[in-house]
Amino acid sequence: MLQIPEHKIPIVEIKTGFDVRIFIKREDLIHPTISGNKFWKLLFNVNQYLESKPENPLLITFGGAFSNHIASVSAFGKEFGIPTIGIIRGNELKNNWQDNPTLSEASKNGMQFFFVSREDYQNKEQLTQKFLEQYPNSLIIPEGGSNEMAVKGVQYMLGNDTKDFDYLCTAVGTGGTIAGISRFAEEHQNVIGIKVVKDNSLENTISEWSRRKNFELIDADEHRYGKISDENVRFINWFYNEYQVPLDPIYTGKMMQKIFDLAEKGFFQKDSKILMFHTGGLQAIKGANQFLKSKGREPIAE
Ligand SMILES: Cc1ncc(COP(=O)(O)O)c(C=O)c1O
Known about the structure:
Layout: E1 11-14, E2 21-25, H1 37-51, E3 59-63, H2 68-80, E4 84-89, H3 101-108, E5 112-116, H4 118-122, H5 124-134, E6 139-141, H6 148-153, E7 167-172, H7 176-184, E8 190-195, H8 202-210, E9 215-219, H9 230-243, H10 252-264, E10 273-277, H11 284-294
Parallel strand pairs: 2-10, 3-4, 3-6, 4-5, 7-8, 7-10, 8-9
Antiparallel strand pairs: 1-2
Helix pairs in contact: 2-3, 7-8
The structure holds pyridoxal-5'-phosphate.
């Protein structure tokens, strides 16, 4: 069984000219490679699995070429001595995955890859069936790592240090993180999720996991799901210079920019205290910069 580590995550204030106070909880610092929400989402899933004392334990999961989840599962496997398999979207990567920073790190962590076409990747049930037949004792973790156990694990992102905040904010991908924050938030707290993916079923999925109605979803920028805009890169670089906190271009950078935008427009109650969770994802900067530089665009400061 894996132990819940002793942890003291810093909360830092981001001084702005807005009429609210903004703070950031550096969950990205929980572990050097299994950063942010992923650590808590995985810990509970793997613990439940290990309780059943599987013979030859094995973790299998899904993800895209730059996936934070793939990076984290591979690092988790390395840290706790459990072999890992990644089912990767896009069989065009089969011959050149070594050029991809996320996959090459995951491979160094010992992850084995199976590349599948984008079409086959859509059919996760079939893939799960296939892998379970081949590896009946394995744990198949859903894409993004979100499920009931992940939601339970997220309770450790909350504690005495988060109780006084009026708003708790996070970036939303598959919804497990915000569902956990919503489930374990105090009665007086409003939970705000900044959505970075196009998925109209998210609200229902989160409600089922959270069983509460204390959250609101707001689009980061509905025209730019999964895309990196020059404006966001400039914001991330400015933010780093100003506050020395690095942000990633897919989740936390978009969340922070949107929260600044909302604060400027008076969305939050005057004088309220807002806490944003830094959910990690910084490993994706290398891959993003490879892309931005290839297009002659401004990169993210590394
Ligand atoms: C850095 C980062 N932040 C936030 C999220 C969103 O978490 P969730 O998928 O639980 O909504 C993810 C996705 O896993 C992520 O990688």
